[in-house]
Design the sequence.
């Protein structure tokens, strides 16, 4: 790998931004990979004879793997190369996405889907830990930039998958294409991302933190728990929506596969709101940002499943769900939980975020399908997508803003790499 331009042992800002973009591309492919299955679900159900409940389970079971990977990955991230964790994670989910297309039945498909989530979780935790540590003064905006990339992948993924499905007539084709694309971006990250970017701050854990902020010395505290509750709520509501929304549009409202794919893509387009949301979160009270966004999301969900019927209305509401749920809540909560702990625990805080978000999400599609079978789409959405967020709103009222790490005053105020550390980090690849 060619050495990057450095200033006093650090990457130049231009080099850092370029690497941030490359990592964003890899995360966009992650988003394409995880959201594609829900678009293909009616075709999968038809070929294998799966029920709506079984299909809903398959659509979101990958989040079980993500959730289970969170805590062990977070532990590793404070000790080993974050870049290596990312690369291994991409390889895992890319391979298993291809294997999902070769499934013989329900159980092996469920296994492939769940195991693919382990790779996605590894990349997720490593990615957000790295960018959060490097851009400490603009942490929320850096997280928002990654969510912007996620939004691009979520926007491109469903629509492209729908067209690949129409062109080939085979639901397996999009899975194989996206799996191969994952290996391409893995190689891209290996060659163009330096450990000088991804490993910043690792020396804090080894040398001991000199942080004098009011945050307690341990990992768990009240604020971390409250952020975890917010993440769990987002997982249950958000992935219930993601898992079955295209099915709702196609089976209940009679949308075509391209109409449903486009509406699902607009959820991803809404997630592009992550950058301005991050800019605001770096300057405002993040507790009230979370409360307001959660309230808006539950109202949006009610309108989506109980009031709106036209493609135009659904497109607007799908965009709104993505903007508020993924663009604001995800970005705000992820950056906030990192501010709730000392620098040496950032990796493990990211692991807690991943576990709390994705472990409950693993059953969100099955739960939504079960509620739909008993109560219908409207009442099921009211229970899962509208009532559940109330728990996060109430818990966030008890958040203690005095127990947060202060934001660095200077944009480039991040941990400096001691002499020799940068060179040693190269060996981690």
Sequence:
């Amino acid at each position: 790998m060619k050495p990057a331009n450095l200033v006093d042992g650090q990457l130049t800002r231009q080099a850092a931004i370029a690497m941030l973009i490359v990592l964003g591309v890899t995360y966009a492919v992650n988003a394409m990979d995880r959201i594609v299955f829900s678009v293909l679900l009616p075709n999968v159900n038809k070929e294998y004879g799966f029920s709506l409940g079984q299909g809903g389970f398959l659509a979101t079971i990958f989040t079980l793997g993500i959730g289970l990977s969170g805590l062990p990955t977070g532990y590793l991230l404070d000790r080993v190369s974050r870049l290596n964790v990312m690369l291994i994670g991409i390889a895992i989910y890319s391979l298993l996405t291809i294997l999902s297309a070769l499934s013989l039945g329900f159980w092996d498909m469920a296994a492939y889907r769940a195991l693919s989530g382990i790779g996605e979780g590894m990349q997720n935790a490593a990615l957000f830990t790295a960018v959060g540590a490097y851009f400490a003064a603009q942490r929320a905006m850096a997280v928002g930039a990654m969510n912007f990339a996620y939004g691009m992948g979520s926007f491109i993924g469903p629509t492209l998958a729908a067209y690949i499905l129409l062109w080939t007539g085979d639901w397996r084709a999009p899975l194989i294409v996206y799996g191969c694309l994952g290996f391409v971006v893995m190689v891209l990250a290996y060659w163009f991302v330096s450990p000088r970017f991804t490993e910043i701050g690792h020396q804090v854990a080894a040398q001991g933190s000199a942080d004098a902020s009011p945050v307690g010395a341990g990992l768990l505290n009240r604020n971390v728990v409250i952020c975890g509750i917010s993440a769990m709520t987002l997982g249950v509501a958000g992935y219930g929506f993601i898992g079955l929304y295209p099915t709702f549009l196609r089976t209940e409202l009679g949308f075509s596969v391209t109409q449903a794919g486009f509406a699902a893509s607009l959820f991803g387009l809404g997630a592009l709101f992550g950058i301005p949301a991050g800019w605001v979160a770096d300057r405002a009270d993040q507790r009230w940002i979370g409360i307001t966004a959660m309230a808006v999301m539950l109202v949006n969900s009610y309108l989506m499943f109980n009031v709106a019927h036209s493609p135009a209305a659904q497109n607007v509401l799908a965009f709104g769900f993505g903007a508020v749920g993924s663009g604001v809540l995800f970005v705000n909560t992820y950056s906030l939980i990192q501010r709730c702990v000392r620098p040496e625990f950032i990796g493990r805080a990211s692991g807690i975020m991943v576990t709390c978000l994705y472990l409950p999400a693993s059953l969100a599609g099955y739960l939504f399908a079960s509620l739909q079978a008993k109560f219908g789409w409207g009442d099921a959405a009211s229970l899962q997508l509208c009532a559940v967020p109330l728990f996060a709103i109430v818990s966030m009222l008890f958040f203690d803003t005095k127990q947060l790490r202060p934001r660095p005053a200077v944009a480039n105020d991040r941990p400096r790499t001691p002499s020799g550390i940068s060179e040693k980090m190269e060996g981690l690849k």
